[in-house]
Amino acid sequence: MNVKQKNSPRTLHDPDVPEITDDWIADADLYHGEKLMRRGRPKLANPRQLLSLRLPPQIIKRWKASGPGWQTRMAEALEKSAPKAQGPAG
Q1: What pLDDT score was predicted for residue 90?
Q2: Dihedral sign, CA of 13, 15, 18, 22?
Q3: Integer CA distances (angstroms), 7 to 1, 3, 4, 11, in order
Q4: Which member of 3, 29, 86, 90 has the greatest number of CB atoms within 10 A?
Q5: How far apart are CA 84 and CA 89, in angstroms?
Q6: 63 near 74, Cβ under 8 Å?
Q7: What distance in Å separates the CA atoms of residue 11 and residue 7, rounded to the nearest whole number?
Q8: Which has the closest alpha carbon to 53: 45, 44, 63?
């Protein structure tokens, strides 16, 4: 049976952990000159917007059955059939 020690050390020292130096911290972010280089995908100029839309189940089932990329194809079909802009909305 393991018994908890009454007088355990308050700090943990692991000899395998590398020392954290100022150089190590400085290298944590990647800079190109003064500009911080962001990780991941670049932000889109015109990102898609979330919309909640109720459709009949059979329509959704048919689109999903068309295979991967069905949402993109649905967006393209909506784009083709969308009414033309009338001018500034007001």
Answers
A1: 52
A2: positive
A3: 18, 12, 9, 12
A4: 29
A5: 12
A6: yes
A7: 12
A8: 63
Structure tokens that stand for 53 in this block: 């839309």
Q: What is the DSSP string of the chain?
A: -----SS--SS---TTSPPP-HHHHHTTS-EETTEEPPPSSPPPSS----------HHHHHHHHHT-TTHHHHHHHHHHHHSPPP-SS--
pLDDT in tens, 12-71: 777 888 888 888 887 777 888 888 887 788 889 999 999 999 999 999 999 999 999 999
Q: Show the tokens assigned to 5.
A: 């020690």
